[in-house]
Amino acid sequence: MTEKSEDLDDYLDSHYIHRSNWLRAAVLGANDGILSTASIAIGVATASATREPIILATLAGLVAGALSMAAGEYVSVSSQTDIEKADIEREKQELEEMPEIELQRLAEIYEKRGLKKTTALTVAKELTQHNALGAHIRDELGINEISQANPIQAAFASGAAFTVGGLLPFLVTLFLPLNSMEYSIYGFAILFLIILGALAAKTGGSSIGKAIARITFWGTVAMGLTALVGYLFNVNIA
Ligand SMILES: [Zn+2]
């Protein structure tokens, strides 16, 4: 690898988009972990006068949530990968059966991107000579290495992120006083969500203020509604 191409790789790596896949899965997982586990805990804490049911429900929610998050990510990434693989196979076949038409199609794509007809054809010819399938996968199907996730890795990342997120409210149910439990869970959950939101916005190069406002609003709505359910439940039990 020449020094020039190493510099290019470093430069490309500096773009936020390269961090997007694992960041999005990790933040989504942790966010979900904090919010859904804290909401379950608040709902049960509002309806319960003892600590055990709160701990049990929170733990059950944490485990169920982590597993369903991992399973959901695995299924969605696997089906995405299957679709991409099927498209690539079809592309391979089309390149074998009708190389001339495929070359024209590629040139049209470059023309649409702003190249002159002759330049587009030259570029299409050179890229076809260099790596025909690679050029069609990237420029016709729009599949590139950056967006291709590994199902197992994605499932593991999501499940692990959910677990880390969910552990935070769970620790609150273990150690904080029972009488103000729902307020402690809410307070800590919003704090964790704000830290996570700010971190994600900073890493992704987007507005921190907007991220904090968004997460605080939706976090409050979610936990507020489950507290209401718990409260209504409690009124009915008492
Ligand atoms: Zn093609």
Describe the structure.
The protein has 238 residues and is an all-alpha fold. The chain has one domain. The protein contains eight helices and no strands. It has helices at residues 3-13, 20-47, 51-97, 99-112, 117-139, 151-175, 181-204, 208-237. Helix 2 (20-47) runs parallel beside helix 8, helix 3 (51-97) crosses helix 5 and helix 3 (51-97) packs antiparallel against helix 6. It is elongated, with a radius of gyration of 25 Å. The model has no long low-confidence stretch (mean pLDDT 88). The site of zinc ion has 6 residues, from helix 3 and helix 4. Zinc ion binds at residues 91, 94, 102, 105, 136, 140.
Low-pLDDT runs: none
Number of helices: 8
What overall geometry do the principal axes of the alpha carbons give?
A: elongated
Give the overall pLDDT as a whole number: 88
Strand runs, count: 0
The helix-and-strand class reads: mainly alpha
Order of helices and strands: HHHHHHHH
Oligomeric organization of the protein chains: single chain
Proportion of helical residues: over 70%
The gyration radius over C-alpha positions equals 25 Å
Query: Which ligands, by name, code or SMILES, are bound?
Result: zinc ion
Strand percent estimate: under 5%
How many angstroms separate the termini? 73 Å
Number of domains: 1
Instruction: Give the biggest sheet.
Output: none
